[in-house]
Structures are given as C-alpha cells and as structure tokens.
C-alpha cells in the first residue's frame, strides 16, 4: 500500500505547520527567549555573532565619538594633556579599548581618566549592557546545548507493532529499549490512536485522538527501562480496536502515536521520545523474538533481534466476534 501522510513521523517529528497567524505572530516576540531556543542552530549562531558584532561596533563608535568631540584625536597624548581615554588616537584604538574593557583583559596601555565624566557614564552603561547581553545570549546557548532532545535518539522503538494472544487475551504490542547505560528515571509511556470519525450529529473529526490503555490501572505504564520491554495493550470492549479483525485491518486507516517520557538520570531534565505506527505497520499474528540471554554474571541484550518478529497461531477474528 502507498505510504500515506503521517501525523507523527517514525523519528518523532510532528508534521504540523502553523500558518495564517496574523497578529498572533507577535506572541513569539513576547517570549523572545523561548523563540531563540527553538530556532535551528545555524540561526542561533548567526544571531549570536551579529548581536556581539553590532554591539561591539556601536560601543566602539561611542568611545570614538567622545574622543572626537573632546578633541583627543588631534591632541598629542603627553604629560601636559589629559585625554578622556589614554592612547586612543583613532577608531581601531577605540575599538581595542572597548574590547579590553568588555572582556576585562586590562593590558594597561589604554585606560580611562578621571577628567572624563561622559566617559565614566558610558563605561557604566557598557558594563550593564554587556552583562545583560552576555546573560541573555550565553544563557540561550547553554539551554539549547543542554536540551535532552538528543537523548531521545538513544531510546529505540520497534519498527512494527504486533497483534497476538498473551495470557489468553488478544493484545496489541510493541517494543521499547534504552541504548544507554544511564537510566530514564520515572519513565512513563502513553499511547494515542489518531483516526478520523464522524459523530452522530454529523460533525467530522479529521484527527480525533483516543487514549490507548497500556496499563494505567495496573501501573504497567510506569517503566523500569533497564532492558527492552514489550508494551502491551489488551484489546477488550473498551479498546478502540474492539471490532478490529485480520480482514478489517487491511481496510482501516489509523495511527498509533507512542509517547515515552522520563527524567534523564545524568542531567535531571525531562526527555520525551515519540514514534508512531500506521495500520500497515501492525502485524497480525506475530510475536517479538527474545533479545535477553544470561551470560557469565550478567544479562546480555542482543539489539540485532530488537525488531525481529515471528508468526504465531492467532485467531483472525476480532474480540467482538
């Protein structure tokens, strides 16, 4: 079957674009910090470089302007004359003085004198403005680097989901695994079934979301994700797949969105990993191959068999039938 449009890609990216915001786009500027963090890295680096470059040139021009208005550029800097900033003769020297002050390098060759009140005011303004710009941009870069999005790439989901019997009950199952040795603290999994439907009143819901029970009542949704786990949804009278059979599966159109959340043990930040399964990726009458084996003093996980399944005898009828 031809692959159709997904609501959530296999890698977790949501295929939703917001358009025609009109005046509501100003809300992005009201939360400028989050807007900068959400930008791609190339735009973040460009804004970072441009902000510092413009700030440096503007502040250096202000120091040069003070020296120009006081006539320091035309006067010889000797013991008989007290300039605003010693050893500032042109714009490059004014720029170097600003950089030395901003970066607290303090080479000692250029320095501000006490007979320059406007220079003292500009020096205080430069110190305050530099602290604000540093805190904002460096904080933005730090938050972006410490985001746990890359941690989600080491959380693995099986490529397909399966439907087979477990404990005498028909169940929909898929597998999750953690590739790192560091654990996911308080890991919890949730599932949504996205399917279009029409209400009895005639309203058409194109992307109706329905909760898929993966053990809320029993606590099975709280995962101890040390080794790969098989997540199980029991198909019963309250399940959205109550009327699903092997034959009707070929004609259905739905998408199961899986959301795995937890706290990264090393950083303490919340991480979320997502994936989805369409009806073409649900295998009727299959079961996952075991991946755990006992070695000399430890349990070994063979991830080469993580996605592998094999057929098992399964009734082709729905639970309702």
UniProtKB/TrEMBL annotation:
Residues 8-148 form the Potassium channel inwardly rectifying transmembrane domain. GO terms for cellular component: monoatomic ion channel complex; plasma membrane. GO terms for molecular function: G-protein activated inward rectifier potassium channel activity. It is found in: Membrane. InterPro entries: Ig_E-set (IPR014756), IRK_C (IPR041647), K_chnl_inward-rec_Kir (IPR016449), K_chnl_inward-rec_Kir3.1 (IPR003274), K_chnl_inward-rec_Kir_cyto (IPR013518), Kir_TM (IPR040445). Keywords: Ion channel, Ion transport, Membrane, Potassium, Potassium transport, Transmembrane, Transmembrane helix, Transport, Voltage-gated channel. It is a multi-pass membrane protein. The record marks 134 as: Role in the control of polyamine-mediated channel gating and in the blocking by intracellular magnesium. It catalyses: K(+)(in) = K(+)(out). The keyword Iron does not apply. Residues 155-320 form the Inward rectifier potassium channel C-terminal domain. GO terms for biological process: potassium ion import across plasma membrane; regulation of monoatomic ion transmembrane transport. The chain crosses the membrane at residues 45-66, 120-143. Belongs to the inward rectifier-type potassium channel (TC 1.A.2.1) family. KCNJ3 subfamily. This is G protein-activated inward rectifier potassium channel 1. It comes from Sclerurus mexicanus (tawny-throated leaftosser). The gene is Kcnj3_1.
């Amino acid at each position: 079957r031809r692959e159709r449009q997904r609501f959530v890609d296999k890698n977790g990216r949501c295929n939703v674009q917001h358009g025609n915001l009109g005046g509501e786009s100003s809300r992005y500027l009201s939360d400028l910090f989050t807007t900068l963090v959400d930008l791609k890295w190339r735009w973040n680096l460009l804004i970072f470089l441009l902000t510092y470059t413009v700030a440096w040139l503007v502040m250096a021009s202000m120091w040069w302007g003070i020296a120009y208005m006081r006539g320091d550029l035309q006067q010889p800097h000797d013991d008989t004359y007290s300039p605003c900033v010693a050893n500032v003769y042109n714009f490059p020297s004014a720029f170097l003085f600003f950089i030395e002050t901003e970066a607290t390098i303090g080479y000692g060759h250029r320095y501000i004198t006490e007979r320059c009140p406007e220079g003292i005011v500009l020096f205080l303004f430069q110190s305050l403005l530099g602290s604000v710009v540093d805190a904002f941009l460096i904080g933005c870069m730090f938050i972006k680097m410490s985001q746990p999005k890359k941690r989600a790439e080491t959380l693995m989901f099986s490529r397909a989901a399966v439907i087979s019997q477990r404990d005498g009950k028909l169940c929909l199952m898929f597998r999750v695994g953690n590739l790192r040795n560091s654990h996911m603290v308080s890991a919890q999994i949730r599932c949504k079934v996205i399917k279009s439907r029409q209400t009895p009143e005639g309203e058409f819901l194109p992307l109706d979301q329905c909760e898929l029970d993966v053990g809320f009542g029993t606590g099975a949704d709280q995962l101890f994700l040390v080794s790969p786990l098989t997540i199980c949804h029991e198909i019963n009278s309250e399940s959205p797949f109550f009327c699903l059979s092997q034959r009707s599966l070929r004609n259905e159109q739905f998408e199961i969105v899986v959301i795995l959340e937890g706290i990264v043990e090393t950083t303490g930040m919340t991480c979320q990993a997502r994936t989805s399964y369409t009806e073409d990726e649900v295998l009727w009458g299959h079961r996952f191959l075991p991946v755990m084996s006992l070695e000399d003093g430890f349990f070994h996980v063979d991830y080469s068999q993580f996605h592998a399944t094999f057929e098992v005898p399964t009734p082709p009828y729905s639970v309702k039938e």
